Amino acid sequence: MKCYVLVTGTLANSFIIKVATDHSTNLTDYSRFQVKSFLSITFKFFDSVLKISLISAKVSPNRSCSNKGNKRSKLMNNIYHILNGDSLKDQLPKSILGELIVARECLVDGNIKGEDLNELFVNRAKYLESYSQVPEGKYFESTVPEITKITNILAEAAIYCWFEDDLFCQVNFWFVLHLLSKQDQGHKIYLVRPNKGNEYSFGHMSEEELITAYNTADFINTNELKYLANLWKNYQQKNFDNLLKIAGSLLNRFPFLLPAVNAEIDRLPDDSGYGRPERQLLLIMKELETQDFSTVFRVFHQNEGLYSFGDLQVKRIFDELLKR
Q: Domain extents for the chain?
């Protein structure tokens, strides 16, 4: 079927595409995405006035829909977003295309020993399922499949890592980069961080702000990837000297690394026998004169955003303090 395509509108607004068939004078609205693959439109600018040439094209609505779907599928298959949690997955704007992978881990907490992934998985499952709130088998059901997806990302894909600046997120980020660095698949890796004022939470950002963060993601080159990936192994081995060296060498590019490393070091007990998280919890309980966990946790979360521990992690520390 032969038709004529008339494109109207201005640069400030989306173009409206209408199709008039040879057999009817009525105009039928078509999505601009349905026909753009078949059009050859010449734009000419004279004195800031947009002149658009009228052309003829053969359009098949069903076929154009199929092509649109194929292109979208191909695009999504080549873009991956590794997210710091399910909350961000629910929050991510639909206009951001790509396969979503959720890093459902909290590697700042518990046993992280393991010479390979299988050993790590066993140790993590055993530890995390010691929490009464975590059902047996949950780790292998919900976390392991997501990590496995990371190890199976297609070659030459664009990978966007959505992680915040706090210690909780950073350790997971280092682990993710460790996995990606071992693949050597020609990936293009980017870091998406929250904007200023929301360094420890994507959750406070609007849809527009998330899109801006995505569009301004930092590309991680091969040399940077090597250093960043080494953070995980050194964290796993508690080699604080190396952590400080790596964070210091990347200070100009990734200034948030050093505070996160120092926050980890501050977890070590001082002369009082307590690390910073324990000392802060004790101080909050003393100042507020309460041992109500909800109250204490709320204040701890506000004061110690650099840690961004979840309620499970803080509750474990809290309960241990009350036993002493």
A: 2-67, 78-264, 276-317
